[in-house]
Amino acid sequence: MIALIGFIAGLVFSSALGAQTAPAAGAAKANATPSAPADPHDLSGVWRRRTGNLTMSNEMPPMTPEGQAKFNATKPGYGPRMVPPALGNDPMGTCDPLGLTRLIFFEVAGRPMEMIQIPGRVIQFFEWAHVWREIWTDGRELPKDPDPRWLGYSVGKWNGDTFVVDSIGFDDRTWVDHFGAPHSDQMRFQERYRRLDHDTMELSMTLTDPKMYTKPWVSETKILKLQPKTEIDELFCVPTEEQAFNKRMRDPAGGLVNKK
User: Which pLDDT score, from 0 to 100, does residue 236 have?
Assistant: First the structure.
């Protein structure tokens, strides 16, 4: 019964997740063929990776005692520490903001993300939660003592053909990933975007947080593909819908009975 509940919980973790479409037959072979060249300084377009994990990499760096205590307090609906979602404390279950890192992992794992370049800024528009993020490119420096933000404060600049984005000022109520990895308000996050050809862009990331981890957490390289015919859907996490889903699916899966 416990195994069945865990299995059901994994399936029903969020009504908004939905089923992700598997790559069409032959897609991997087609993607292996280089496409036409493109301006490496133009990242505009809708990008997507149809497969991928929901974290930085499979190897988390060792945690500090403070980081381990914070990690132990998380109760995720994914991974080896998975609990029935009704018994968990994932912010996603109440439609709280996911934070920048989880948004990015969601996109590279299947949800599209659009890059829009305008003078002085790059706008990153995420399908999940239908939110957008500003990356300042007007030459400003990162603020010395920023107020905490759900998505942090980000500045970007070009290093050759690589767009380097540095971010600080994160609200520490968010998780790094869907498995409950923690971060503090001292987290620094760097993304490196590099367009390889017209249809292909690679992304690598480094998370540094001495309060939580004993060394930087370096990601695996993520490969994103241009989706010229894809439009960003209106995909909100709606609290009233999540509450109804909790009563209908999550609570029964977690063994909770509605007493009303």
Answer: 87
Angle at 226 between CA 224 and CA 232, to 5 degrees: 100
List the one residue out of 229, 232, 15, 43 whose CA is nearest residue 131: 232
Three-class SS of residue 30?
helix
Three-state secondary structure call for residue 44: coil
CB 157 within 8 A of CB 140: no
What is the average pLDDT across 247-255? 73
> Could you tell me what percentage of the chain is helix, strand and coil, using 3-state DSSP and rounding each to the nearest 5?
20, 25, 55
CA distance 193 to 157: 11
Enumerate the H helices of 190-246 as residue ranges: 239-245
Residue pLDDT, tens place only, 25-35 = 344 444 456 67
Specify burial of residue 70 (Cβ count, 10 A radius: 0-12, 13-18, 19+). buried
Whole-angstrom distance, CA of residue 85 vs CA of residue 179: 12
Mean pLDDT lowest among 11-20, 97-106, 161-170: 11-20
Which of the four pLDDT bands, split at 50, 70 and 90, describes residue 18?
A: very low
- For the CA atoms of 104, 184, 156, 145, the dihedral, rounded to the nearest 10 degrees, stands at 150
Question: What SS3 class is residue 180?
Answer: coil
| Short-list 251, 183, 240, 166, CA closest to 217 | 183
Handedness of CA 146, 203, 22, 233 (dihedral sign): positive
Q: How far is CA 98 from CA 92, 103, 140, 205, in A?
A: 6, 6, 26, 18
Query: What pTM, to 2 d.p., does this model score?
Result: 0.82
